[in-house]
Amino acid sequence: MSTFGKLFRVTTYGESHCASVGAIVDWMPSSTGLELTAQDIQVQLSRRRPGQSDLTTPRNEKDLHGVTLGTPIGLLVKNEDQRPHDYTETDLYPRPSHADYTYLEKYGVKASSGGGRSSARETIGRVAAGAIAEKYLKTVYGIEIVAFVSSVGKIHLPALLAPPSLAKLLATISREEVDKHPTRCPHQTTAEKMTQRIIRAKDASDSIGGTVTCVIRNVPSGLGEPVFDKFEAELGHAMLSIPATKAFEIGSGFRGTEVPGSKHNDAFVRRPDGSLGTKTNWSGGVQGGITNGEDIYFRIGFKSPATISQQQETAQYDGTSGTLAARGRHDPCVVPRAVPIVEAMAAIVVLDQLLQQDARKAAASRLPPIKTLPPTMVMPKKL
Amino acid sequence: MSTFGKLFRVTTYGESHCASVGAIVDWMPSSTGLELTAQDIQVQLSRRRPGQSDLTTPRNEKDLHGVTLGTPIGLLVKNEDQRPHDYTETDLYPRPSHADYTYLEKYGVKASSGGGRSSARETIGRVAAGAIAEKYLKTVYGIEIVAFVSSVGKIHLPALLAPPSLAKLLATISREEVDKHPTRCPHQTTAEKMTQRIIRAKDASDSIGGTVTCVIRNVPSGLGEPVFDKFEAELGHAMLSIPATKAFEIGSGFRGTEVPGSKHNDAFVRRPDGSLGTKTNWSGGVQGGITNGEDIYFRIGFKSPATISQQQETAQYDGTSGTLAARGRHDPCVVPRAVPIVEAMAAIVVLDQLLQQDARKAAASRLPPIKTLPPTMVMPKKL
Amino acid sequence: MSTFGKLFRVTTYGESHCASVGAIVDWMPSSTGLELTAQDIQVQLSRRRPGQSDLTTPRNEKDLHGVTLGTPIGLLVKNEDQRPHDYTETDLYPRPSHADYTYLEKYGVKASSGGGRSSARETIGRVAAGAIAEKYLKTVYGIEIVAFVSSVGKIHLPALLAPPSLAKLLATISREEVDKHPTRCPHQTTAEKMTQRIIRAKDASDSIGGTVTCVIRNVPSGLGEPVFDKFEAELGHAMLSIPATKAFEIGSGFRGTEVPGSKHNDAFVRRPDGSLGTKTNWSGGVQGGITNGEDIYFRIGFKSPATISQQQETAQYDGTSGTLAARGRHDPCVVPRAVPIVEAMAAIVVLDQLLQQDARKAAASRLPPIKTLPPTMVMPKKL
Amino acid sequence: MSTFGKLFRVTTYGESHCASVGAIVDWMPSSTGLELTAQDIQVQLSRRRPGQSDLTTPRNEKDLHGVTLGTPIGLLVKNEDQRPHDYTETDLYPRPSHADYTYLEKYGVKASSGGGRSSARETIGRVAAGAIAEKYLKTVYGIEIVAFVSSVGKIHLPALLAPPSLAKLLATISREEVDKHPTRCPHQTTAEKMTQRIIRAKDASDSIGGTVTCVIRNVPSGLGEPVFDKFEAELGHAMLSIPATKAFEIGSGFRGTEVPGSKHNDAFVRRPDGSLGTKTNWSGGVQGGITNGEDIYFRIGFKSPATISQQQETAQYDGTSGTLAARGRHDPCVVPRAVPIVEAMAAIVVLDQLLQQDARKAAASRLPPIKTLPPTMVMPKKL
């Protein structure tokens, strides 16, 4: 389906090389309204790809005074770079590790524009929708979503390897800091190494993958559905829907499977405000599929881009083996530009889950207390 | 929501300590019917937990001659072990890294039975539903789904580390082989080490996590939706909805992010039957969110069980810090029993996606060919 | 699909002649819980068909102290009357205006038990789910849902023809009053005529249809989604999913199409509590798809039962024309028993829409007021 | 939600007085593609409102050669008539039987542009989406969808009252015939009377309602889901989501409730091609929620437009009673323009149900026959 979300819902259309891409955003909360300007959206679009994804039609900017109304918002970004198809060779070859072959298998039609819907252009609609969701989350809950590049090839951000320094990084990192270096890695020495690694890939007409880590701060506890729609399951779904992703982990992730329960368990402590927090946060802010109020953090693996500027031995559509010629210059590493896309999908998941929990809580809060409730079921008082 | 799937849909109810758990399975395909017996389901229930999850009501076994009708199937497993709640201490303490606290935050009610819906008992309904889906997949496509334990703590199955031996393992592994050792690791030496590791955890009143790897063979190409519901996104969603999971990766996963594109790209080759296959399979059977006919394989990380038999320093619900006493014996490692749950969720995802692609293909196949179609869009003939 | 609802969701299974029918009810609101007993549900099951639909498994009655927890509720009613199939003739004939033929066309399997899922037995799950929803609606909002028989054949409840007497009836009618006469028509003289009409049908081995009218009182304003999921569209969907229904109208319905706008418009008046109400209620409590706080009322047409005890000239499955013999006694008029089913579906729709609006309102209420809001958009103060 | 459909899905945005309205159409079937031109869509847009709803952005007309690809289609119609809001009086008064009041109750914001999303402008997106669906239905199945005005006020098309003449009308009516008279009533004498009735309403600064009847020919049997998503329930949902609708009936509808079963039952007959048809068609093409291959016909009631050009005594938002002044000229009767909207929603429902049944049938057709199937379950051979 081209729609994501249960209550806060984003529907996108558009692919590479077509006239425009866009989205419809449904169920944006509104009361006396939330001021939303094109600029709120443009900031993230520009972080995705500067100068190439200008929002031309924020639906109702003028007549509605830049105020959201709770009704769906239409978004459109025109494609300036809508060149006619001129690569005759790719008419013969499905590009290795691209979606050319699988799309043909799915739709029975060769989309001449390459990967079609799996194109990175489609993500423009998501980034715009995420920026809208984020405006609400920030205004109401002070929720902060910050993603950054945590590895390029084998070069990893050192902080990730040590829980205490990781916790500190996650607690304080800001987008401004992330953007200080073009690789969007917030550790300058590592960022430089990453740049070298990317240049090396470029010089070799090759490409290299990496990981993005993201933290979401100030999310209320209680979000997520206990069984199939656990918070981390929805989040994983959202992240694995971003092109080129191959892996997702939350909290301690794969590494945590090696840590014994006695060390991995997050003991509770009383926070200054009287609520419960946890001493450690191996869980990554979710327990049993539901947020516990601690920082939510997760990591996503992006494979090396399939488009490379060197010859490849491979088969044509008809089975003939041959050599797919080297092509023009391409981006040898996409993780820096994936940062705002990760943030966007995170914002969409959080707002969708917030709306669901709002429904539960509001409906439950109207029930009168039960006198006969057994003591074991009573919610304990805070100290 | 308590429902998973778009067309093939599974809805479950039930939690720990309640009278029964069950599921409703909707949209099971049928024509002149598919013979389905209670035994088909019981096999996997018993692999999940021998002797404790007997299917008592396969809805229509007698009157409908064991034949599925395309209408929903109700499933019920009674809880024999429905003991009254007797742990007064857990009335005071939210257990660390359990769902006690987050459920209270979500529902405003303390479920005396502990983790409530996030209990492992809920997975009975999934395993039963998965067995039903699998019967169709095996009968019609010869699809084989085999999961196994690939690590316990720091003890990893060696094959995972070397692509060629991994490919061979994935191509041949069977459930019989997996079940030869109680740890469900198909490499006897490693399995023994895992057993020792689990015993060590047990002796220390501690617990240990691990990973499960799963392969799905013979899945047709073309499954998966290009944008939000990519095959791997649905698969990741399904796996991350299993209790205690923290990580998911498909194909080369996190490790693949370190491999340059020139090596990571899966070049095409002509298969003996004339169709296209790939030389390598770093992609794990999906490209652009859509299956390509190669083996689908993925790995899931399960954290160390939160229930341990040793004292823990932690806070009570009201914030008072204290010591949660050691409790009775518990399973120090759950990954061996997670194997059939992983297989079940995989079967549900594949059947749901198959039905969606069946709709697309059947509808498209009725369209007459277009004469004016430009050559670049025509599906190439096989050699 | 076998699921109804977006947030409050009911999934049913089961059909005629199978071992049991049941439902899973998801998203029942709970806080410190809502006391729910088997008796709450049994009352409506017994109104549906006395003595034949005893709830045997209210999931968690004992261990959970009869308190809802917000988690899904499993419901099961065993079929006492699970006779083997013994009508050889219906193996040859699709019964006219039954679902025998269309089910065969849909599923490719002849369900030996006749109408299969379209059987009235399936409605047991709905009635149980509706009773659960109603418990919340009544407890929290004092919402009252009362359906009654408004016509049998050509015998119509006179009040329906005159707006003022209709309004009065709708404002005061109770279930007790409805149940005073077995036809469930709240006007004794008309009820007697209806009885005579039903007896006449029975004596002629024939059947007769009728209409059910339903009122929902005390529904808050603001429920319903503006475009595709208008309140009346969801309500119509729910009602037209009840077996044997052919028509639905809300408020003035078909008759209202003949009334000029100047008379049909519901002018606003100030209610004693300062809120706005309407002088007339031709709209039936909804405007633009959204409830306005006035009584919601609607009417549903049920066709004459297709099962009749007389011979019918018709064709066999293979096309041979012949005579389908008279069969045993059947219910010549089903509308009295449809009353609790209509109430159940109404309750499900209202609770589902309430939860959706709760999400919207709760999320919107947290937004800070906007200072620059143009005056035309400001919500006016009440006098 | 702003999305309709399960597989073939339409999402709309936009309301009155905003910059544009549009839709995203998902899951349009495609193989070697279906030729789709802007003209295919424009025809119905122009029937909806000539000259005011020109499609400006059929997404990918040029680069994709007017061929659908199976991927989502974005549609946009700019609003030429985007006047600033200048009605100060409606800032004080909620217009009677409009959505002004209920929208304020729902969203907490006064949409200055009046009815907001319930505006007729929103239906542009639906009409465009329906035209796309219809192209497939016509190309592949020869499905014909024809709606016409069957009453204006108390003036009814005579054919509706007599089953035989109705059957004949439904079997032959075409859009060309419907469009011969501006009222879109296919009976010239009646059409003239309707015109007079509309003129009378106009002269009285009043408005008048009416009904639209629609037939869908050549729909395959087997469409519709047996329980909650019966074909007629989905159809009713779709129709009751059109602005100003208050009533829906299929087949014999309300009138059929007065006809005894012995007469109302549709006996089967062998069709010339060997398949089964029915002698009569009181059912309106559906039995048990599933299509039987006969003509599907239904009728929808539209209330008299709420906007009238005369003074109305009513209350202001703040409760003050007063007189809402007469406003400018408005359309005194909307049913003629509702005709293409009804056809569009019908097409959307049919294609969505076709795709679902395609999934069921394709999946079931791959199952091998069961040898042990009891004779009563075997599908009978055609003669």
Automatic annotation (TrEMBL), chains A, B, C, D:
GO CC annotation terms, alphabetical: cytosol
Annotated EC: 4.2.3.5
Matching SUPFAM superfamilies: Chorismate synthase, AroC (SSF103263)
PROSITE patterns, per the entry: CHORISMATE_SYNTHASE_2, CHORISMATE_SYNTHASE_3
Pathway info: Metabolic intermediate biosynthesis; chorismate biosynthesis; chorismate from D-erythrose 4-phosphate and phosphoenolpyruvate: step 7/7
Keyword Lyase among record annotations: yes
InterPro entries membership: Chorismate_synth (IPR000453), Chorismate_synth_AroC_sf (IPR035904), Chorismate_synthase_CS (IPR020541)
EC main group: lyase
GO BP annotations listed: amino acid biosynthetic process; aromatic amino acid family biosynthetic process; chorismate biosynthetic process
Pfam families listed in its UniProt record: Chorismate_synt
Membrane-traversing stretches: none
A single GO molecular function term of this UniProt record: FMN binding
NCBIfam families: aroC, PRK05382.1
Protein name: chorismate synthase
Species whose genome carries this gene: Ephemerocybe angulata
